Amino acid sequence: MLQQEIEISELRLITDLIKQKYDYDFGNYAMSSFKRRVARVLELYKMEGVPTLLRRLDIDAKFFKEFLAEITVNVTEMFRDPTFWVELKTHIIPHIRQNNENFSIWHAGCSSGEEVYSMAIVLEEMGILDNVKIVATDIDHVILDKAREARYHIKNMEVNKKNYTTFGGLYNLENYYKEESGKAVMDQNLVRNVEFREQNLVTGSAFSKFDLILCRNVMIYFNQTLQNQVLRLFHESLHKYAYLAIGSKESLIWCELANKFIVVNNEEKIYKKIRD
Known about the structure:
single chain; alpha/beta; Chemotaxis Receptor Methyltransferase Cher, domain 1; Rossmann fold; 2 domains; 7-stranded mixed β-sheet; 9 helices; 10 strands; 19% strand
């Protein structure tokens, strides 16, 4: 089915049904992205059109979970944008540690966990992993299970190894995983201080205070209303003078709370909260 055959009115029917039946609100997602992903679901499940999808969503809660996984899928990799990780290691984390030897990090929208394991490796190589509490959240419990298991296709490790080398890792990335049946199985000891939990950034509320929040390449899928809503959640969840990192193609400049942050590194899109 071609993407252009899906009408905006049909997308609204989908978001209304999901909100009413499952209490997930996709109404403020960027419609172009939502439309693309709905089209992908129709193709994947060989559905004739949106009416078929609506009927399936209405009667099949298990299918909704599969639908959710497809809609929220986020392609990721370890040490994505290596210069970002260099900035974290050389400037951001040392600045945090000037005030707090023990600190906390929230990975919001952690997807299949590559970013979480990247962070754990950075902290381990700095010798401070046991000083850090990490919370990793995502809307989709299926993808969270993948993050917990951390079994990645071995072919994906080539780009991960390249990123790690570019970042300047102390060892070889192979030190942190073993190969089993074509999968790279990450060392579970890396996530000994990580709590994985299901959370909806759209409807969720603050559950703790953090020194660093990472939400990279997630808000790009949200419209302005939803970006404002999520930024309010992050602002509330950050200690004063704590840090927020977003994706390289994202910006806080148009958000309502932009004046409560200053830019620390514009290229890497790292901000500091300066006002409550």
